[in-house]
Every structure is written in structure tokens, then in C-alpha cells.
Amino acid sequence: MIEYKNVSKSYGKQKVVKDLSLKIPDGEFVVLIGPSGCGKTTTLKMLNRLIEMDSGSISIDGKNIMEMNPEKLRSHIGYVIQQIGLFPNMTVEENICVVPRLLKWDKEKSRRRAKELLELVNMPYETYAHKYPNEMSGGQQQRIGVLRALAAEPPIILMDEPFGALDPITRDSLQDEVKSLQQRLGKTVIFVTHDMDEALKMADTVVFMSEGQILQADTPEGILRAPANDTVREFMGKHVHNFSQNQLACSDLMKTNVAKVTQDRKTLECVNMMSRREIDSLVVVDQQERYLGVLLIETVNERGKAGDSIKDLITVDFPTVTPDTPAKTAFDIISGQRAEYVVVLTDDKKVAGIITKTSMSKALASVVWGDGQ
Amino acid sequence: MSNFFRLYGEKLLNAIGTHLFYVLISVSIGFVIALFLGILLSRVPKISKYVLPVLSVVQTIPGIVFIGILFLYLGMVPATVLAALSIYAIFPVLKNTYTGLIGVSEQYKEAAKGCGMSSLQSLLRVELPLALPAIIGGLRMSTVYIVSWAVLASMIGLGGLGDFIYIGVSTNNNTLIIAGAVPAAILAVGLGLLIDCFQKKAVPKGLRRDAK
Predict the structure, then answer these.
(1) CA distance A104 to A118
(2) A307 three-class SS
(3) Mutation test of the interface with chain A: which of B115, B120, B203, B205, choosing the one with the most A Cβ atoms within 10 A?
(4) Which of A248, A286, A370, B122 stands 20 to 30 A from B140 (CA)?
């Protein structure tokens, strides 16, 4: 348990952290986020005393950090920085073993630890241990940066915009790796970023800061659902936009290129069509394009005869919605396993589209992670 | 030619030996002092901004003047030469040690500190190794300097290759001038190469530019 109590810090006349209090339970992934200059990095660095606070107190498991030797404190808190900061004069293994060496682990134990850690991120010891940082890509370097922080098994890891300098794809996979490492190893992580995507993806708790104060500390869902004020709402931009309306309609998620047939078609023709498009049902309409029902492959298999028209094989009680129906209704129908999909009908009974599990999850993903994904 | 060597061979060898002795001893002393001062100054960059320019002015005082003054106090002993040369050897190493250490990127210092290194550990394990190429560059410069300054030793009658040059100049004997100048030049180039080799060995692999 980490506890900040009324912590303040100023540089000259400017107060960068104002009377901040925060409790972080063990094993939690906490992301500090906010506009630049909001004091998030200062808050982070006060914990390992790279920055000394002016007033207030910080304790780890009840022990006041100001009463601990700063070097000893730091060697028990992992630290990852944006610039990576692997020592270029040391090999990968030496870099990983920096803290164990400071803690006077014996050579064999350090080596075993380096090996174990490299395996954790799928970088074979034989290939990587003796490389130098300048022989590796940025993403690989930052993986080692993370391993260096984990090496001496500290219960707490601090990360200061660790993926800020990486390309989006590398960043994405490192986020996944770090999150899963954190969960597997049960570490408490304090993570600073200004990237809301990153915060929502990784955090158990998002702590939103502005002008040295905490505006809101909540789960990602909580902060999305109910941003504390306009500053938070504005910062979340696209993320909160859809949620605040909370009015996703079926028309927002439906697929419009629906496979339709008229009821006078023959069974074989329809089966061919389904197999060609790799689907197992067709929407049946009349000559005026009005909705009649759905033709399911099971029905054709059970009762259909080659050469017959499909007229008698149509399932008519298939779930339907209108374009204005709240998306949640469609979601409930699908998640209730009552149907593979629902059909969206306009007021004059024409087929507007269908909502499948895939279109549903795509729509949700774009709400949660933004349209880019 | 062979006539020359019969006449001067032994003298020349002695002179080279003396010269080399002056160079090695004074560069070693200068290097140690410079390294120490460079580290100290790099801890207080604010003060160094004023100290370094003053030192660089000292560096411009001609060696003759300096040896002359020391001669008055210490007399005609090798220590006079060694003291003067050591002082000249200090500056290039000092300057490069200082700039090398100051130039160590903040990220490494922060990472070192964040890992729990004390400032001494950070200096020994991270900063000095990273500044090593610059420091050795300074050592090379000092050595080449001192090979030429050591010629001044003969001015106060303390031998070295300067003897040949001074006698050559005063008796208008070109052979003697060349006999002093060529070995001095070879000495400078040779020691320079030796230090280059040392640099290749000493600089951590990860810092070499050709590392791939």
C-alpha cells in the first residue's frame, strides 16, 4: 500500500503539486494522466525521491519514505523512463543485472534471473544477453528497460511515459506485454502518460491530474461514464463523446451489405449462395424489397428438397429492430444467445442492415479505444 | 650517415631515453591530476564555468617562461622539468574529462540514480565509462603536446632531444637539428598510435561507433 498524504511541491513560486493525497493498494495498475505540466511526473518521482517533496508525506506499507535511505529505497522500486536509458557501455545482461549487482546478489543468481526475465518476454538468453543496446531496436531496448526494473523483484514499478518514444505498433505490443507481466507478477505499477488510449487500456485506476491536483481517480469505465468535470471530459475527447451521449443506435452498428434473396428462389440456388459467401443464413424479401423473414441453412437441411422454392422454409419469428432502437437492445438479444444476428428494418419494412456479433464488437471497440482501431 | 651514428649514436639513444622519461612521467602525473580535477569540476558545473577559462589562459603561457620561473625556485633538477611538463599535460585531459562527463546524457544519469546507484557508483559504473572516449582523446592530445614541450628541458641543461636541436641551431648544423627533430616527431606519432590502440581496447564495445 502506497499512501500520499497532503503532498506538495513547488519550483520557485510555481506550485506543481498541491496538497495531493492518494492511496494505491498493492497489485494495482495506476495510471497518472493529464495535460503536460499537471504534476504527474513530479508525483511519480517523489515516490522514489528523485524529486524531494516540500511538505506532506509518502509512505510505503506504513513506512515513511523520508526516513529511508534514498539509494536503498530506489533499489527496491523499479524505474522505467521514456528515454529508456539502458547503459550503452553494458550488455543486455549487465543492464538487467544492474540492481541485483547493487544489492550484491552473487553472479550465478543474477545470471539466472537475467535468463528467466529474458524468457518472460520471449527474447532468448543466448541471442540477446551479450548484445549491446545500440544493436537492438527501440522496442527491444525498452523491453530490456522494463526487465531491468523488474530484475531485483521490487514490489513497485514506476514508469514515466515508457512507451512515448516508440512507434504505435511496438507501443501496442509492449503495452500488452507489460500489462500481462504486471498481472502475472502481481506488481504495483504507477504509470505516467498523456495518452488516454494507453491509460484506458492499461489502468485499473486512472488518476486524472490537472494543475497539481487530482481531478478524478476512478476505473477506466467510471471515468469514461462520468467524467468529473469539463477538463476531464475535454481531455478524453473522442472517448467520452460517444459514452456521454450513451445513445448508440442500431443504425450505428449495422452492416448494410446484407445477403438478400426473394422468396421465389429455389433451395439449391440459396445454398450455393450461402456457401459462396460463407454464411449460414439469408434475409428473404419480397418483390418490393420488404422483409419476410430469414432462411437458415439448418431449415434447408432439415426440410428442404432440391428444386423447391424456399417460400415454406422461411423463419419468420427472427428478432428484428428498427434503426433508432438503442444499440443495447440489439446487444441484449445477441448476447442472450437468442440469435446469431438481428435484422434492422426501416419503418416501411425494408431491410436496412443486420447487426452481427462482429459488427457489435467492432462498434464497442471504437467507442472504448477510439475510431483508429 | 654511419659517421654520424658513430659520433652521436649513443648520445642520441640517451637523449631519446631521457625525452621519453620526461614525457611518460609528466603525462602520467598530469593525467591523474587532470582526471581528479575534471571529475571534481564536473560535479560543480556552475563554478567550472569560471574556472576552466582561467585554466585555459594558464595553458597559453609559453613553456619557456614557465620552466624559467620554476628553474629559479627548484634549480637545475629533473623535477623542474617534470613539474612544468605535468602542468602542461593537465589541461587537455582536464578539459576533455570535464566535457566528457558533462556530456553524459541526462537519461543515463537518471537511470543510474533511479536504479539506486550512489553518485560514486553512478560515476564509476556509468559516467566515467561513457566519458572514456573523450578522456582518452585528451590523453592523446597531452602526450603529443608534451613530446614537443619536453624539448625545452635542454634549455636548462637537462638533456632530451632538445640538446640536439639547440646545439644544431646555435652551431648552424642542420644534421643535428634533424637528428633531434625526427626522433621527436616519430615519438609523438608513435605514442599517439599507441594510445589509439589502447583506446580501442579500453572503450566499451557498446560505445564504439563501428559496433553493429
Answers:
(1) 21
(2) coil
(3) B115
(4) B122
Alpha helices in A121-137, H assignment, sequence order: 125-128
Nearest CA-CA distance, residue A161 and chain B, Å: 13
Nearest CA in chain B to A154: B115
Nearest CA-CA partner of B31 in B104, B87, B70, B98: B87
Structural domains present in chain B: 2-210 (1.10.3720.10)
Regarding an ipTM greater than 0.85, the answer is no
φ, ψ of residue B210 to 5 degrees: the values are -80, -5
Helix axes B78-102, B63-74, angle to 10 degrees: 130
> Looking at CA atoms only, how far is residue B206 from chain A in angstroms?
5
- What does the angle CA A72 – CA A73 – CA A78 come to, to the nearest 5 degrees? 110
Rounded to whole angstroms, the Cα distance separating A179 from A182 reads: 5
Cβ pair A88:B130 closer than 8 A: yes
Quick check: helix, strand or coil at residue A38? coil
Helix (H) or strand (E) segment spanning residue B141: helix B128-149
Q: Which residue is associated with the grid cell 448494410?
A: A256
pLDDT on residue A212: 93
Instruction: Kindly state the greatest CA–CA separation across chain B.
Output: 70
Q: Is A146 on the interface with B (CB under 8 A)?
A: no
pTM for the whole thing?
0.72
Counting residues of chain A whose pLDDT is more than 70, the rounded percentage is 95
Task: Give tens-digit pLDDT for A121-139.
Answer: 989 999 999 999 999 999 9
Contacts of B204 in chain A (CB under 8 A): 88-90
CB B115 within 8 Å of CB A145: no
Q: Which of residues A328 and A189 earns the better pLDDT score? A: A189
d(CA A264, CA A311): 6
Chain A residues with CB inside 8 Å of B101's CB?
Answer: none
Q: Which residue has the higher pLDDT, A43 or B71?
A: A43
- All residues of chain B having their beta carbon less than 8 Å from the beta carbon of residue A133 are 206
Q: Using one digit for the tens of pLDDT, what is the confidence trace for A233-279?
A: 888 776 655 544 456 778 777 887 888 888 888 888 888 888 887 78
pLDDT at B209: 59
Cβ atoms within 10 Å, residue A62: 7
Is B116's CB within 8 Å of A71's CB? yes
Q: Single out the residue of B24, B88, B110, B27 nearest to residue A85, CA to CA.
A: B110
**B126 interface with A at CB cutoff 8 Å:** yes
Q: Which residues contact B184 (CB under 8 A, 6 or more apart)?
A: B19, B147, B148, B151, B161, B165
Give chain A positions within 8 Å (CB) of B126. 87, 89
Contacts of A139 (CB under 8 A, 6+ apart): A166, A167, A170, A173, A174
Q: Taking CB atoms and an 8 Å limit, are A89 and B105 in contact across chains?
A: no
A357 C-beta neighbours (distance < 10 Å), count: 13
pLDDT in tens, A171-183: 988 999 999 999 9
Say whether residue B113 is in contact with chain A using an 8 A CB cutoff: yes
The pLDDT-based confidence of A197 (bands split at 50, 70, 90) is confident
State whether residue A21 sits within 8 Å of chain B by CB: no
